[in-house]
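tool_log.txt
---
The assistant was asked to compare two proteins side by side. It first ran the structure predictor on the initial sequence, then on the second. Raw inputs and outputs are pasted verbatim so the downstream comparison step can read them without reformatting.
(1)
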Amino acid sequence: MWHLVCGDVAAVGVTQVLGEDAAKGVRVLRDDLAVGPLVDVEQPPCSARAGFWLDVWPIAVTPRPDFGPDLSADASWLAGLARQDQAVTVWHGDSCSEQLLLARVAAALVQSELPLWEVSCGTGDSSVRMRRAVGMIEPAALGAYHLPKRVEAGRKAQLAAQWRAAMAANADIRRWRDGEFHGDDHRAVDAILLAACTPEWQPLPRVMAEVMAGNDGFFATDFFSFWRARELAARGRIELGGTAGQHGYGGLSVRLG
């Protein structure tokens, strides 16, 4: 059986739960589907999506990944999923990316009799205070969530429709709330960042932390938050100063422009 997870941290816990033999079926999909264009996510070479991630990636952080091959490999693998004979389990929590992965896999299998299972590890609430992603659970505790549930035909079709709608909408950001995906643009994220800035210099990571802790419905990562800071600086809304350090943003300061 395939066990699909979002990100390497989640994979560590799932691998520990499954044991050595079953863990051979763990496949990690690293694309954060909650942000960026989805218009060509299923169409290798996925140029628009790869270009987005290159923009997000800090210039100071090397080596710069070549996102196209990995995105294309995921798209091709998922396209062929229905033609193989292994059942599929998607592990997910309240991360929008995890929920989008579940919907994406459902779309790949919607015309197939191949069994699709889900392991739900979340709270069902994607607000900052309540949400829980698979990778947030200690590996030793994750086994208690290993209660696979078959995704029946009706739910599979509903999830597939949600995935197709998310691709068609092609929003800047997708938030997961009450079992639905809601498209958004960058203004709400930028507003949090700007509200955390002052006329005086302060460490950029402190401001980024406000963005990362203030977004319901999806997890704003450090690189995504740093990218929004660079975009606002390019428009003259804020100023960035200092010398890029760890992760490309350590050592930087920010103030209102």
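(2)
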Amino acid sequence: MSQISRVTTEHNRNPMETIQTDKSWTVIQPSKGWASLGLIDVWEYRELLVFLIWREIQGAYRQTALGLSWLFVRPLLNMLLLTFVFGYIVGIPSDEIPYPLFALSALLPWGYFSNAVIRASRSLVDNLQVISKVYFPRMVIPIAGAVSGLVDFAAAFLIIGVALIIYRIPLRIEMLWTPFLVIVAGAYALAVGLWLATLSVRYRDVSFAVNFLIQALMYLSPVIYPVSQVPEPLRLIYLLNPMTSVIQGFRWALFGSGDPPSWIFWGAVGLVFLALVSGAYIFRRTERNVVDIL
């Protein structure tokens, strides 16, 4: 009896010990550091990102008579309008650059920036049906809105290339700066778009304020006038506007007008980086409840 009792005891004890040994716990904690921005998740859904970019491009010119021709018509019309009103009627100086080139070199980055901000800021509200049904990192939506504007930029760049030939502007090594300037403009547009998209989730007034904001930023940037027209006491603050540095950089790279990028330019780049990181962080915190709020 004692032997049977002993075996039974051991038999009862060993499974319990096994259960206690094999038991594991999964602790879910919020990500910290750069991982909290969800950049890895965006990379894993890169195919979806490409699809959304293509959808944005097609949707912008769907059911239009001219179709993709608007990519070339719109910057040309804007350039002609600015040249006629501000170049010939008002007579605004253009730093010894023909005013059509002066305006076109500003419309090139500004057109990309403004379209990217508008598309990114409304991305969450416009894609509510998709967000509420399928899981994916929500940040790919504003990124797609910002990146899709590069097609408009490429078309406008072809126009300015033709203008350089017409005005016999020689090629310069400094033109290699233009891709970096486009990246700065895109990062700034995405930063502003992330902040506005986050606010638009809670306040629908943002969608009405975006156009006013874009218009105000245009007047606060050297699109229709040179930086030399800005009063000297306000010029330092004015130059901290990232789009001021980008537009000035384009005119310097294409025509040699003005000074090369200085410490003010790199300070503006630093502000863009801070705005982008903070906007991505706030956006990630908001996207957890975006469906419930919307």
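---
observation on (2): The mean pLDDT is 79. The radius of gyration is 27 Å.
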